[in-house]
Amino acid sequence: MNPKTLQYLMGHSDIGVTLNTYTHLGLEDAVDELKRVEELENARKEMEKINGEGTVSQKMFRVI
């Protein structure tokens, strides 16, 4: 569930209260998220192969 939705449903004025009360993470959660990141990276590489394109630059601003 979206944390902001849960905050609203629980009537918490501060998202910190919601997050500190209803979120509990462990090693398995971290491992699962790392797997998702790896899957996304693999999918990106596969799309580059299919499209024949290089990585898209995400730089939006130039330091002057």
TrEMBL record:
Gene3D superfamilies, per database record: Intergrase catalytic core
Annotated TM spans: none
Keywords noted in UniProt: DNA recombination
One of the protein's GO biological processes: DNA integration
GO MF assignments: DNA binding
Keyword hit for Cell division: no
Protein name (database record): Integrase
Record organism: Sellimonas catena
